[in-house]
Design a protein that fits this description.
This is Biogenesis of lysosome-related organelles complex 1 subunit 4. The chain is mainly alpha-helical and about 140 residues long. About 80% of the residues lie in helices and about 0% in strands. It is rod-shaped, with a radius of gyration of 40 Å. The chain has a domain of about 90 residues.
């Protein structure tokens, strides 16, 4: 019985040693996570915040460009309706036919009423100052 009890105690001590070894591994992994991984994660999160700000600025820029393009499209459509946008074949036919002078006067007076105003365009350099710098 003593031998059996001695063997059981040895098994139990072996298991306790294995358990202590597992606890030591867990402690070292935990300290590694706390001392190394968390600061790295924090650094990456800070970098990501800067990237998110850049993405937000880029989204605002794209929206501004979209609004500018939409405004220009509206002006083009208005100009086409005001001045009449005929397909090229009609223009060629009209140029070959002599148009009475009263038609010319009405079209010229209509053109004089609407003066061309160039649209206000943005400058890319205002939004991307690094484009002004010389390439490497």
């Amino acid at each position: 019985q003593i031998e059996s009890l001695d063997k059981s105690l040895e098994d139990l001590l072996t298991r306790v040693d294995e358990f202590v070894g597992l606890l030591d591994m867990i402690r070292s992994d935990s300290s590694q996570v706390v001392n190394e991984s968390i600061p790295q994660i924090y650094t990456k999160a800070t970098e990501m915040r800067q990237i998110y700000r850049k993405i937000d600025k880029l989204e605002a820029f794209v929206k501004m460009i979209g609004n500018s393009v939409a405004g220009l499209e509206e002006r083009v459509i208005k100009a086409e309706t005001d001045l009449g946008a005929f397909p090229n074949t009609f223009k060629k036919i009209l140029h070959t036919i002599s148009i009475p002078s009263f038609l010319n006067k009405s079209s010229s007076s209509r053109q004089q009423q609407t003066l061309y105003e160039p649209p206000v365009l943005f400058k890319t350099e205002d939004y991307f100052p690094c484009l002004n710098e010389a390439p490497y």
